[in-house]
Specification:
The structure is a homodimer of 374-residue chains. The first copy, chain A, has 374 residues and is mainly alpha-helical. In chain A, 52% of the residues lie in helices and 7% in strands. In chain A, α1 packs antiparallel against α2 and α5 packs antiparallel against α6. The longest helix of chain A has 19 residues.
Chain lengths: 374, 374
């Protein structure tokens, strides 16, 4: 916490020292979300709700531009630093505010959540606004990230605000993800698909795979099915997609899930495609456990064990705690940071909290004999 | 060459096969530049001038938006694909057109070069135009890249157009690079410096080092001194900056020059900071030879030998020719591509052509005894 100006420091080096003071909105709101959720959890500690509420005050006061959208970043004092060019700032503001409403019942958090959610929905068709660089000659794509987050937000709104007004957006996002992004012939879920259906195998963008995104999207959908029931055919499809993403994304040579891939193993535009980031592994852990819980298919349990071993052997910092964020393909850290522009107290604690709960559910559902086996 | 629509394919896999059809303007104009220069060189071959001229026709016809700035990318057919958000498209258009004028004396190439150069100069204070995301709360910086390219463009305009009208821009760019970006206490040349002087060691942006940029900027300046004479104090300073960049940037563990670094060894924002890219090594090779030629200091020769060995041992593809573009820190290729969004027929051939010429100059300048020693 920045006790002088408000908000949080997220650029934290290995030992927790601050190496940059920029307040990136994605990171700030994810901390509000996580401390609200942890306050509500069986692990709650005094002071955690206060951490979330003080963050909200700072972000709500300083965070929005004149159109109501959240900036991408503030400076340490809370002055606007990077414009609201990215709709996921609104997305994480909605998540954080909704969780804070669930934790407190305070109406201003609910209103802030709804405003941010409506801001997100209003921009989903033109997310980059005036900062859009694409022109008519560029192939347009639907992006898995947008629909994945819409599905996640819908579930969170449903759960935190007890509001079913986003249900149709949610149902439509899930249908789009399962029907449009999955290519059954190739057995791959793509990151970018053609707006009118189909896949573009002629371009880097069209061939791009993001296995961490796929696994995250799939557990969001399983979470929805778990809460609301779902067509058994869809459950079978989700299980198949998860297996495909695990198999495609796992590095058989060095272990861990690749960051980005190309559907035809052609060169990837991103230099860091082969790195092992903490978050895709976190999403894989949750997806494996959720799929095991929902299907009972032992293959998911085996994948969980594999990821569990690899991640704790490679990401954990036994001296200063927390996980490293970035490993090279071989599994050695390339950065000493524990938090930064894109990593904060979010994916790992969410993964741990979800995993503990899923393991409890699995344990409760199994007979003593079954449990003994695993 | 795309014989159907014009322009060039630059997304070429290891064996030369095309893996994406986007025509990125930086890459397209760099090919025009390189084939014009090679046509003028002692290695000229029939057809090379035609390659440059056919490229010019396509790019001049399709490449500019309604304000006269060059787009960032066209699609295969030449339709605008990515907007003119990046001023270096104008910069490379000026370079390519100027070299083509030098090769042909055709006036339309000269006019195109001057228009693009003026477009570049007009935007240097607000290079991102409407795509700028920075707001008042963000620390502004002067960027080495902009002044480095201005110095390079000034020399090229001077040489190709025989025009001294850019001489004052050039002189001012060289002064700014040498006076403002070099920190004598720390012995480092920074990538971003405060507009009113000084360095920001509190932020990732302020601490950023880009040793490849430094070496490129320094040989541009040596090239200028070589052609026009220069203050001997400045020559001594440039030599010191080159030694500092080589020493700071060289990876003593695995060899090669790092891509990005942090002045205080704090975490770098970029995931790929520790990768070994082809172009910083190319710039290092030229800088070492140029500094050896201009100063006679044997230390530069030793550095050249070191880079020469490391690069040819790691980047060369003995089976299909050309160099790989991207190696991991350990020196193994992470991408099979020979060309892409950022790599094309430019840094490597420029480096080879410059190196051969510099070695000839060095040989001619040395007495027989001196030459025998090296």
């Amino acid at each position: 916490m920045d006790k002088e100006f408000g908000g949080y420091f997220t650029s934290l080096d290995r030992d927790g020292s601050v190496y940059d003071y920029t307040k990136y909105m994605w990171m700030q709101w994810r901390i509000v979300y996580m401390f609200s959720e942890l306050h509500l959890s069986e692990y709650s500690r005094p002071g955690w709700l206060d951490i979330a509420e003080r963050g909200f005050d700072f972000l709500y006061k300083h965070g929005r531009d004149e159109t109501g959208h959240y900036y991408f970043a503030l400076n340490r004092k809370g002055e606007p630093s990077i414009a609201a060019y990215n709709i996921f700032s609104d997305c994480f503001a909605a998540m954080g505010s909704a969780a804070l409403y669930k934790a407190t019942g305070t109406d201003r958090y609910r209103r802030a959540a709804e405003d941010a959610m409506n801001g997100y929905l209003a921009r989903i068709d033109n997310p980059k606004a005036q900062w859009e660089k694409s022109l008519a000659g560029r192939q347009r794509f639907l992006s898995l990230g947008h629909y994945m987050m819409l599905a996640n937000l819908g579930v969170i709104m449903d759960e935190c605000l007890d509001a079913d007004r986003y249900r149709s957006d949610l149902d439509s996002a899930i249908s789009i993800v399962l029907d449009r992004f999955w290519n059954p012939e190739l057995g791959l879920m793509f990151e970018n698909v053609l707006p009118n259906g189909g896949f573009d195998l002629e371009s880097c963008e069209g061939r791009m795979l993001n296995p961490g995104h796929v696994l995250e999207a799939m557990w969001f959908i399983l979470n929805y099915f778990d809460r609301n029931g779902g067509d058994p055919h869809n459950l079978i499809k989700v299980a198949k997609i998860i297996k495909a993403a695990l198999k495609t994304g796992w590095d058989t040579e060095h272990g861990g899930l690749f960051y980005f891939m190309d559907a035809q193993n052609k060169p990837h535009l991103e230099l860091q495609w082969d790195m092992k980031l903490w978050w895709p592994q976190c999403e894989a852990l949750i997806a494996c456990l959720y799929a095991f819980k929902m299907t009972g298919d032992r293959e998911f349990y085996d994948w969980f064990v594999k990821f569990n071993e690899w991640t704790w052997n490679h990401f954990r910092d036994p001296e200063f705690g927390e996980w490293y964020g970035y490993l090279n393909r071989q599994g050695a850290p390339t950065h000493s940071l524990k938090g930064g522009k894109w990593k904060t107290f979010f994916h790992l604690p969410r993964c741990l909290l979800m995993s503990v709960r899923l393991m409890q559910d699995i344990k409760n559902a199994l007979t003593t004999t079954e449990f003994g086996e695993i």
